[in-house]
Structures are given as C-alpha cells and as structure tokens.
Amino acid sequence: MPELPSKSLLTSSFYDSAKFKKRGLYWITPVFVLVLYLLVMAGFFWLQRLHSESVMFITMDEETRQQRLLFFVIALSLIIIISLLALWRYTRFRSHAEAALQAETSFRRAMENSMSTGMRVLDMQGRIAYVNPAFCRMMGWNEADLLGKSTPFPYWVPGRYDEHQRTLDILMSGKTPSTGLEVEAQRRDGSRFTSRMYVSALRDPNGEQIGWMTSMTDITEPKRVREALAAAHERFMTVLEGLDDAISVVADTVNGRELLFANRTYRRLFGSQPQGHAELLAGRRGRFTEDSIEQYAPSVNSWFEVQHRMLVWTDGRRVRLQVARDITERRKHEEESRNQQEKIQLTSRLTTMGEMASSLAHELNQPLTAIANYNMAAVAMLKSGRATNESLLSALEKAANQAERAGKIVSRIREFVKRSEPRRQRVPVEEIVEHALDFAEIDARKRQIRIEAIIPDHIPHVLADPILIEQVLLNLVKNGLEAMNHSEHDLLTVEIKLQGQLVEFIVTDRGHGIQEPERLFEPFFSTKSEGLGMGLNICRTIIESHHGRLWAQANPEGGTLFHFTLPCAPQEPNDTPIKEELTV
C-alpha cells in the first residue's frame, strides 16, 4: 500500500480506514492453517500415546499402525499445501491490487500536478490540509508556507479580510452556489488576480465529512477580455441606438420573416415587428448591391433612403441588413428648391423677353405694317376699278403670309415664357437651334452680327426639355452677341458635334474674352454692370439636370467658347436625316 502523503495534514483516520479497509478477514487463513497444524500434531501425539497404552494398538500389527500414521502425515501435508496455495493466491491478488493502486495513484498525482487548476483542501476547522502544485504556482507560495495555515491566509488581500472571511464562512457552511464564487487573491509578489472557486465536500469511506475540496481557476485575463468585449458591445450598441437611421436585421424562415435586431429608431417607427423591414424592402429579393433606393413607407407617411446588404449572422444563417434614413424633410426641401428653380428659370425667360421687348415690338411691327399696306393696296385697286383677280390674290396671299409670320412670333414668345413642368422628350437638335436663333436673330441684326449654325448630317436626337435648352442656348448666344458689340468681327457660330453618346453644343464668339473664368458660373457674379449674375448659373443647373455638362474656355483666336452636352435619345426607326447646315 502507498504511504501516507507527507504534505497532507488530514487526520490519519481517513488514510487508516482506506489502508485497512479490505484487511478485516486477512487473519483467518493463517490462523486456520495454524489450528489445523496443531490439531494434526495433537492427533499424532494422541496416536502415539494410544500405541503405547491402548489395547487396540496392542492387538494391531505394526503395518496397520504405519499406515495410519502415514495417512495422518499425508492429510496434514495436503492441508498445509492447500493452505499455502490459498495464501499464495491471496498474496498474488494483493500484490496486483497494490501495483494497480500505486499506478492509479501515480497517474492521478501526475495529472493533478500537470493541471492548471489549483486544488486546495480545508479541514473542518478551516485549516489548509492540502495544496497541489498548481495552487502553489497560482499563489506564489510554497507548500510549507501554506499547509496548516488558518485564517487569515497568506494570499488574502490586505484590507479586505472581512470580505474574505465572509466568503470562507459561506464555503464552510456548505452554501456555495453551483456556479462557484469569484474571489480576488494576492500573490506573494504583491500582484493580484481574480479566480473562480468551486467547492465540494470531502468525505471518508464511511461517508463522514472530513473537509472541503476547492478548485480555483485564474479568470483574470478571461474576465478582462469579457469586460472589454462587454464595454465594446455597450459602446457599439450605444452608437447604434443613438443613430437617426432605422437599422434592422431580418432572416427569412419557414414561418416568415424573423426580426433578429432593431435599433431604437426602427422600434420607434415600426415597433418590434418585421413588417417595417418588409415595407422598406419594396419587394426586392436575392443579392443586393450597395446602391441605395428611395422608398415611401405609407405606415409612417415618410420617405426613406434605404440600403440593403446580405451578411452571415452569428449562427451561420444568411440574413438581410437594412439601413433606412428618413429623407422626408430632404425631399420636401428638394421639391421647394425645384419649384424655386422653376420660378427663377421663368423669371430669367421673362427678363430675357423684357430685354428684347423693343426688338420684338419692331419685329412684330414689320408684318403688321405689311398686312395693313397690302390690305390698303387691295382696297385702292377695288376703288379704282383696275383690280384683277391675280393682283388681288397676290396682295391677299402676301398679307396672309405676313399674318402667319406675326402669329409664329407671338406663339414662340408664349411658349418661351409659359411656365410648365419640365418635359424631357426626343427633340431634334436642329429644331432647338432654329427656335433659339429665331429669337437671337432680332438682336443680331440690330448689332449687325451674323449667326452661323453648323449641324452635321444625321445628328441624333437629344433627350431634353426643348424650352429649357432653347433658354440655355439663347442665353449663351445673347452673351456672345453682347461680347462682340464693339468687336471688328461680325460672325458668331453655333456648332454641333457628336461625342460618343453625347451631343455637344459649341457657341463661339469673337468678343473681349473671359476675365475671371474660375468665377464665371458663380451666383450673382456678372461682368455686365446691369447684369444680375444668375444667367450662367441657371444655365449650368438646367444642363446638369439633363445629365450634361456646361463649361467655358478661351478662344485661341480671341473671344470665348461655351460648351454644353446633352445625352442622345434612344434611336427610333423613323428618325430622319438632319439638315446639314443652317445659316441665319
């Protein structure tokens, strides 16, 4: 049997009872052999005595006596041999049991010494009766420094003895929770650590409790990591809960959609149900790009800018993340800004018409005067009696042509200044150029400047609002005419080029050029003393709303080149070739 461990201070009754547990009947076999031997010897001496005194032995012959004596000797020998065999068998069994017990003890001791969990045994008086090497490494104290120690233990934190004593009282009372106790200890070098302690009762073979077995695990680093993760999670949740965006995560299950996460904004708007997520989903399925969509939510009467993304949840499921930003106010401001922009554009057109009022009056006065003259001539011929059908028909046709001309001028002015919603449509490029130059022609003739339009064959149609684009082109041509007011050159060109899927308009003047090109498109910046500085800014806004671009550059030959582009409209089979050149 293994010897009593020297580092244990438990009472010897536990080890004694374990040591002699199976020795209760060990003495029977040798005592039985001894008794049998004494009985045989007594019988032998009794037979010898009978041999000398008994009449029976006197009558018996010598051979019979020898046979009986041999029988007793053989019987005694067999009994001794059997007893010795039984004793040998028991001794062999005991040797095997002791070897197995020693191997088991060595294995458990090696396992105990290699484990990182500190083991400690307290006796019923609260003294340390046993510690394993892991406990010593954990505390930094040797076995000799710990065994037999009572409270306060060397590893108790100074100044917190009352707290440690309450923990020990809970331990000694047997009321330790199954989840263990979290205790703080101090190593020999003064460093402190946190451990979790589990307790179980230690009993002897008779079932009587002789102490408490405690196991302690250092949880300082796991606790630090856990607290760091908890703090990071709390910070992350604080950020998510504080966002104005509605964030939700939904998984598709056999029972429908399951809301896995929703922040405070989502819960405030849609509650704790996935219906809000489905409402903003707008019927989209499958893989989502990171492009956002604008979606109206009738349940909350608001517009949202929604982004979707598929991701893998913590349990491995593929779920849908949705981020929805309330853009109701933004859309309201955009609508107001668009209305204001339309008003500015209308004002700009009215201003343009105001500046051209005298010229337009002169332009209208010509056909009206011609109509009056033709009618008076017809009346005069009728009065004189010299009228013929041919002469009257000619005068009336000329009057009708002048009236039609005046009507076109009035109709063009009404279309230009009329306020209407932007209508993007397929528009022939030459139609935009012709209408814009019809208006600019009046100012050009007054300034004695020629306008030449260069349009290639088969130029594609553009997708635009014709009134707005005519306003842009007219504004650029008028600026060019004004810049050439005192120039020795008398030609302004409007050239059309095809640049891939874009149609480029180029207005070239030979005026005084650009003085501050970087500020040309700033609001309220103007090179004219009477200008408001909004014309070019409005033009750029109109072109950009058509997904085009407006820019200016100096003309190498003097003057300025204004460029703007418009997207080509989709081709249709009935598209007709475009006039190759239009000269005004």
General description of the model:
- This protein is 49% helix and 21% strand.
- With 584 residues, the chain is α+β, with helices and mostly antiparallel strands.
- Among the domains are: 13-48 and 61-112; 115-224, Beta-Lactamase (2-Layer Sandwich), CATH 3.30.450; 423-573, 2-Layer Sandwich (Heat Shock Protein 90), CATH 3.30.565.
- The protein is rod-shaped, with a radius of gyration of 57 Å.
- The protein has helices at residues 12-19, 28-53, 55-59, 62-114, 133-139, 143-146, 161-173, 220-242, 264-270, 275-281, 328-355, 357-384, 389-417, 429-447, 466-483, 535-545, and strands at 118-123, 128-131, 181-186, 192-203, 209-218, 246-253, 256-262, 293-297, 302-312, 318-326, 425-427, 450-454, 462-464, 491-499, 502-508, 550-554, 560-567, 581-583.
Give structural attributes.
PAS-assoc_C; 5-stranded antiparallel beta sheet; histidine kinase; alpha+beta; two-component regulatory system; Heat Shock Protein 90
Please specify the SSE layout and strand pairing:
Layout: H1 12-19, H2 28-53, H3 55-59, H4 62-114, E1 118-123, E2 128-131, H5 133-139, H6 143-146, H7 161-173, E3 181-186, E4 192-203, E5 209-218, H8 220-242, E6 246-253, E7 256-262, H9 264-270, H10 275-281, E8 293-297, E9 302-312, E10 318-326, H11 328-355, H12 357-384, H13 389-417, E11 425-427, H14 429-447, E12 450-454, E13 462-464, H15 466-483, E14 491-499, E15 502-508, H16 535-545, E16 550-554, E17 560-567, E18 581-583
Parallel strand pairs: 12-14
Antiparallel strand pairs: 1-2, 1-5, 3-4, 4-5, 6-7, 6-10, 8-9, 9-10, 11-13, 12-18, 14-15, 15-17, 16-17
